[in-house]
Amino acid sequence: MQLIDRDLLKVYQLSSGRVFFQDVDDSSKVKEADSLTQVRDFIADRCRARQARKLARLQVQVDLAKRSAFTLLLSDLSSLSAILSTIAMSLSAMFDFARKDVEVGESAPKELLLEKHADYIHAYEQKKDSYEYIMAEFLRMSGVYWCLTAMDLAKSLDRMNRADILQFIKESQTESGGFAASQGHDPHLLHTLCAVQILVMFDAVDEVSSDRIVEYVKARQNEDGSFGGDEWNEIDTRFSLCAVACLKLLNRLDAIDTPKATAYVLSCQNFDGGFGTRPGSESHSGQIYCCLGTLAILGELHRIDADRVGWWLCERQCASGGLNGRPEKLPDVCYSWWVLASLTIIGRLHWVDKVSLKRFILACQDDETGGFADRPGDMPDPFHTVFGLAGLSLLGDERLKPVNPVLCMPEDRLASASIRVQLLNPR
Amino acid sequence: MHFVKKEPTTEEQKEQKRKEREKKLKIFSAARDRLFDKRQKGELDEEVLAISGQLLQKNPDVYTFWNIRRQALILISQKIAAENSDDEAKRDERLAALYKEEMILTEACIQENPKSYGAWFQRGWVLERTPKPDYQFELKLCNLALRLDERNFHCWDHRRIVCRLANIPLEDELKFSDEKVNDNFSNYSAWHYRSSLLARTHPDPDGRLPMDESTLAKELGLATNAFYTDPEDQSAWFYTSWLFDDQHAFAEGPVPVWVTVDRKKSTILLVMSGAVEAKTVGDMIATDADGEWIPADSQAQSSQVWLFKSSSLGPATKVTLSYKALDVQVEDEWTDLDAIRALLAPANPEGSLKTALEKMLASCQELATVEPHNKWPTFIATLCMRRLDAQANHDQILSNLEKKLPELDPKRAGMYADLASDIRVDRFLLDALAEYSPVPDTLRMVRMELTSLGQLHLFAGRLTQLDLSENRLKSVAALRRLPLLEYVTLNSNEISSLECLSDGMDNLEFVSIASNGLTSVQQIADLKKAKKLGRLVVCENPFCDDKEQLEELRRVFGDSVRVIPFWL
């Protein structure tokens, strides 16, 4: 695979909004475009031209007047529709990408459209033979957990079909004791945790054998304290959280080696105070959430430098008010959960600006169908919906139930089961 | 959906999409059913590889398909081994070919979705099994993937796995990170890689700095270039702050700093320089009295402050503190005030390190004048001043944190306030140590704009009375680490809950929480659990004007606590 650097189409957008493009292949002068659509059409033409000349690649470089640059590599031009759908990511999205932030427009939703979200989630579960439903069977257990948590936070859990869901859960438990994403698929810690979370929310833990679940989780721990996702032993700090959260919910933390589990998580701490997938991996908000959550469950939060990781976390807030997952990345509503929950766990939620964050999250709502998208204007889905709602709950929206920042479940469900976790400086 | 903009679609487009999807669904379901069926029958063969391969190219995230594939590969490789048990070379050749197919598949999957956990994991899995791993090819693949997306952490993680398996020298990887950083100073992933490599390639012989001094100075220069080139990019700034950050005062691990033995109350209190678990505490303090060590914090396994509650700790009971060379019998109290001073005011850097930091500080301050709207140079300069000489630079540091930075960067005003507050408290404690001997058991930190309480817990062994009136405290969880506290005044703060004090405050007799904007008795009801509580002042809170709330107050606290809702 070789990059052909000479073939370059450069697109510029100045901060004033004017768009220019330069076809380096042609070495013609820089031309001004009427609109981004015109540039998009131009790119499509270039693709066709290159296809005709049987050239494999087109490199489109999007520059801003400042120093940042973004390169879109359109490889394998044999499928033009695929190319055009890649461009469907839209040039404006590319510019968002390059600016590493988004605009929260004036027309974006400003109020919480709670009923719409409840309807959206409720409808999602109904279409059992739909394309989305079947193609997502490999993550259905997690999908169900996202939907139920969203509904419960919205105080509408009773609209979901408890009996059907419990049946689905029982059918998904495998011989090993662990739960699969859906029947037929293999067990995994991710889906085992989701299953247990759902059972706790429905107060139905007694309807399955916890001993078998505990055995499955226990078997996932390695010598160094890390956890594998399943018998194939992919190691990731996400699975440390899945394991200890599962056992915490079942009150069986005694089943694993907790000092080693702590030691492993601490070995993943980086120069910036954050945590990654494994020792040596770059800090990432999602992984930080998993590591802080693990330490909270194990009562070991005093072992980390909370000021340092708190600083890294609050710097995830962009000018738009949204939170990103890592430096120089776009804000995304799901980080309103990973980052916000992490800050809450270490007692530093007030280190972000709540007003602009709330405005960003609300702007991610889809006011037609309900549900939240990753950022304003994109397509909604249950994953971003639950994290949008959970983020708003942490910010104190009274129409939602209080959410637990470690376990991402309504607090009242945990209180009923007498489950408490460590938090630093709670208010 | 990530990056998928919502576009308006016509009915015609919707119908066409529906038809396409129905077709795709049929094909998918048929293939998936066949695959599951074959697995159930134990037929893990080439057909399974073919079907799963097709499915995974379009859906590389379906983890079960990867599992089935691995099961098939294991069986097939066992077959190959059995068939060629007398010809190792032939066996290895066939196995290598089998796994090469796997590499081609995963490469295609990675092209389809460069962030597929399943595809990258499979590559790593194969590398560990194939008789002829091509590590150079793997590195080339990583290089290419990084050129397309230099922040792809799956790729960086895979690179680290390859380097480990191939025993690539760390210096080579350091050179690689050099190239990446010089290519683009905004490459956080490359800076991160450097941070973990340098600690291993150029360690500090004393174990106090992140790397040896001369390398540190060079890195400071590199980082300075980077933040000058792109002052709005976070990478170089985070890296810089790590370079000069004060590594812990006690690099060997937490040390004891205070032990208080109360033979009347039958308790021992221990304060450590850092958090430890119960076992460490038990090994450190030996006593004949029976009892239990409890962490002075809620739901904690590790804590800096520990309390030993006994029923049999009398005037004659031996209490021995043993830590490394230290071995003392404690009568009433043992303290290491030097250690406490070192925690409150770490030693300033000297010699070449000091020079390097002063140079960097100058660059920051210069950049701050050139980029007046950018908070980074000012913030990093502030942290650097604190590191160089926190006491001499005290006023400038506070001025930056309390005035300049909240103006430049209002979103992070909460953080700047807490950092300033911690500095004020630590300085107050330092002054108290200098001014008074013995260490006072009463502290008044009134009207200090406090939002956070620094290292107040270092005085847990002595503090019985605390006045924190007229500050901006929202959380009092820090008080939980002062189990000897008897009197605390919290008037005119912003406290909305005392749940964190619901256990462990066994000596608390008097609490005053007037003027905190409390609207409901439920917000302070948890104080009921403080066994010795005798008096509670709640004047000038909104709930005092509510008859029902006053009733509730009397009901919750009963006869044992004298509640005072009005000043007169």
From TrEMBL, chain A:
This is Geranylgeranyl transferase type-2 subunit beta. It comes from the Eukaryota. Catalyzes the transfer of a geranylgeranyl moiety from geranylgeranyl diphosphate to both cysteines of proteins with the C-terminal sequence -XXCC, -XCXC and -CCXX. Its cofactor is Zn(2+). It is an enzyme of class 2 (transferase). The keyword Transferase applies. The keyword Magnesium does not apply. One of its GO terms (cellular component) is Rab-protein geranylgeranyltransferase complex. Signal peptide: none annotated. It catalyses: geranylgeranyl diphosphate + L-cysteinyl-[protein] = S-geranylgeranyl-L-cysteinyl-[protein] + diphosphate. InterPro entries: PGGT1B-like (IPR045089), Prenyltrans (IPR001330), Ptb1 (IPR026873), Terpenoid_cyclase/PrenylTrfase (IPR008930). Keywords: Metal-binding, Phosphoprotein, Prenyltransferase, Repeat, Transferase, Zinc. It comes from Plectus sambesii. Binds 1 zinc ion per subunit. Heterotrimer composed of RABGGTA, RABGGTB and CHM; within this trimer, RABGGTA and RABGGTB form the catalytic component B, while CHM (component A) mediates peptide substrate binding. The Rab GGTase dimer (RGGT) interacts with CHM (component A) prior to Rab protein binding; the association is stabilized by geranylgeranyl pyrophosphate (GGpp). The CHM:RGGT:Rab complex is destabilized by GGpp. Interaction of RABGGTB with prenylated PTP4A2 precludes its association with RABGGTA and inhibits enzyme activity. Interacts with CHODL. Belongs to the protein prenyltransferase subunit beta family. GO terms for molecular function: metal ion binding; Rab geranylgeranyltransferase activity. Its EC number is 2.5.1.60. Residues 112-409 form the Prenyltransferase alpha-alpha toroid domain.
From TrEMBL, chain B:
This is Geranylgeranyl transferase type-2 subunit alpha. Belongs to the protein prenyltransferase subunit alpha family. It catalyses: geranylgeranyl diphosphate + L-cysteinyl-[protein] = S-geranylgeranyl-L-cysteinyl-[protein] + diphosphate. Keywords: Prenyltransferase, Repeat, Transferase. It is an enzyme of class 2 (transferase). Its EC number is 2.5.1.60. PROSITE patterns: LRR, PFTA. Catalyzes the transfer of a geranyl-geranyl moiety from geranyl-geranyl pyrophosphate to cysteines occuring in specific C-terminal amino acid sequences. The keyword Amino-acid biosynthesis does not apply. One of its GO terms (biological process) is prenylation. GO terms for molecular function: Rab geranylgeranyltransferase activity. InterPro entries: Leu-rich_rpt, LRR_dom_sf, Prenyl_trans_a. GO terms for cellular component: Rab-protein geranylgeranyltransferase complex. PANTHER family: GERANYLGERANYL TRANSFERASE TYPE-2 SUBUNIT ALPHA, PROTEIN FARNESYLTRANSFERASE ALPHA SUBUNIT/RAB GERANYLGERANYL TRANSFERASE ALPHA SUBUNIT. The keyword Transferase applies. Pfam families: PPTA. Residues 1-22 are annotated as: Disordered.
